[in-house]
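In this supplementary section we document a worked example of the pipeline. Step one takes a protein sequence of length 550 as its only input; no multiple sequence alignment statistics are reported here. Step two produces a three-dimensional model, which step three serialises into structure tokens for compact storage. The input and output of this example are shown verbatim.
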Amino acid sequence: MSIYTKNGDKGTTNLVHTKNVSKADDRIQLEGTIDELSCHIGVLKTLIRDGDTIRFLEKIQENLTRIDAGVADPYNREYKINDDKTELLEEEIDRLTGLFHMPKESSLPGACRLSAEIDVTWAVARRAERDLAAVSVKFGSDTGSKKYMNRLADYLYVLARYEEAEAAGQKTGTSESVETDTSSENTELHASGTEKVAGGSVSVDTKVENSLISGTSDSVDEAVIQAVLRRMGMQNKITLDGAKKLIGKIEQEALRRGKKAVIAVCAFIIWILIFKLLDESPRWLASKGRYDEADAALTAVEEAYRKAGKVVPELTDEQVQEIIEAEKEVSGVTELPWRALFSKKMIRRTITVSVGLMAMNLVVQTIVNWTPTLFVMQGVSVGKSLYMTVIMLIGCPVGVLLESLLVDKHPRKWGMVVLLIAIAIAGYIWSMQTDEMVIMVTGFVLCALTYYYALVTCSAYLGEVFPTQLRLRGGGFANAMGRVAAIVSPSIIAGCFAAANPAGAVYTFVGITVFVMALIIAICGIETRGQTLEKINDEVIKDFQEHSKK
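The serialised model returned by step three reads:
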């Protein structure tokens, strides 16, 4: 067999799932850099005398070969880098740093021949890490590989410093001195309140920082916390000390992540602004017995309607009486427990909304996250794939606009069922197309249908099907189920990429799943269009009250 095949004479090559890839492609560049890195490690093996280190370097070469193969075949699980391989690098780094005095400042390469060769290898490893990041942005990549490449560069840097120390006769064989230095630095830091930064220092007043978050420095902070708790309706459910402890935990987590107080301060400011700027629902205020505030909120809404030139509908005496009677029935019921979501009268609603949000997340995540990858796998260039995807996604705001105009003109429940079936059909049709213009047109329709459905589910149905006393918990549970679908589905979709027609396989899976979900909604769902919230939820409240009396 001849060594030359002439297949690459035109400047292209093949990957496992993609043909005729330019040799200027970022993936090919990455494979070349990984090969170069492995060759440099091979040179190190000829210079290093320690047998254990040589064998460790050979394991690194094997892992690099695995990463290289994963670039060509990204959906093959055999080429994934597990965290245990990265942990081995970390263990070796820790072992080496315990054997010598690690210099606090970077040293110029060239202290000895071996350390210089390792520094060259380290520089190539850093380049490979950057190339992997570029591929990750455009095509996605194994998270474990990115961790491994980052830690590999750290290992090579430490190895170079270790060899320098050995050449200079500075090895100690113990980490005792390092620990002593670290301990003294920490003591100095705590005593002075100054954090050392490369080339200088930054003063950190920890007392001020902590008091800003915990609210212990003055009464104003405590008043703010109490006001927020009151606006949340939680002043009787969490103590001031409890709130302080919660905020303190946020601060601790922020410090652990190296962000200091910034995260906690910003989060708390946003928290306050939300409750200052957003008005509460009049219905919720009434459920808490805050009738004056509820009346004021309704008056503000009516004024806004009148200023916009709209007529505020007047309630008939029968409607007013119906509302009064409904309020009498729910008097004293300010909140329903979690178990009410799964009561006899509520379980169907919980299932319907949960399944509806699972379907929404599945379809939206598939369209937004996977479409560019599907295009690239079919031989479309990255630039063109992004262009085609953008044209498709223009259908999203169109779907939202249509939903705002038409949502009250069709039933909620059966509208969701029809939309899901339409999405399943449109997705399958889209996946079967080969003409670029037809792909973009059918994709546009698919996106419009998807976001029309998403707004019906989230904006309309979710807010109507749960009683006020259970809406937050019901909505939270349903959204959690939706996120479960978003977490689980990628692993199944990635498996579909091994098919001859990846797009067809992906949307066949999505279509079948969505169709089944439509059947569940058809069976379990209730209709809410044109009904008052009192009428929709009256039986749920009455059922809970009767159950509580028993």
